Amino acid sequence: MGISWEAFENDLVEYFQNYVSRNGDETAEFITNKYIQYVVGDGGDFMFKNNIVKYNRSVLENSLKSIFETAEKSNSYIFQITNCPRCSGNPICRTCGSNMLSQGVIGFWVGGKLGFLKPPPGSTNIMSNDVVFPGAPQILTIHMTTNFRQFAVDLTSFFRRHLLTVNGITISFIPTVGGPIPTPFPWQGYG
Predict the structure, then answer these.
(1) For residue 28, pLDDT beyond 50
(2) What is the pTM of this model?
(3) Which residues fall within 8 angstroms of residue 189, CB to CB, at 6 or more apart?
């Protein structure tokens, strides 16, 4: 089926329309829950369409909490990110926000395992299905705006681009005359 990025984005917009009444922890939890709902629930590796069954939720949620906490401490909105508290004590910068979020999504995938539902063509049973590269860091393009849709577009684009870089290996048995042989099948991309 694949991830419905448009639905994910719309869920974020609907949530952010009431952003001022929520705190950073609630927002981080909401985004993490939506990421899991769409990525785990609807996604799968591009090669064999197996979805992730083992992941590190807390790493993603904690990175988002850090971003929103820093923005809240500086009396800024995540949408109006300007300078960095590490550099000048001003609101979180685009680079630091991007780095924090990259660490979160990469950490989400570290040690990840995919399901065994669909063995590769020509094979019979999956022996293991592991994420071997949790993805490359991405640049979070944050437009200087209070437009909720633009922020949702930026965040959705970040998540989508990152998943293209996740890869792993499925080890599945191939039947032979001498008995089944475990054979590696690499896969790249998730969506």
Answers:
(1) yes
(2) 0.86
(3) 45, 46, 163, 164, 165, 166, 167
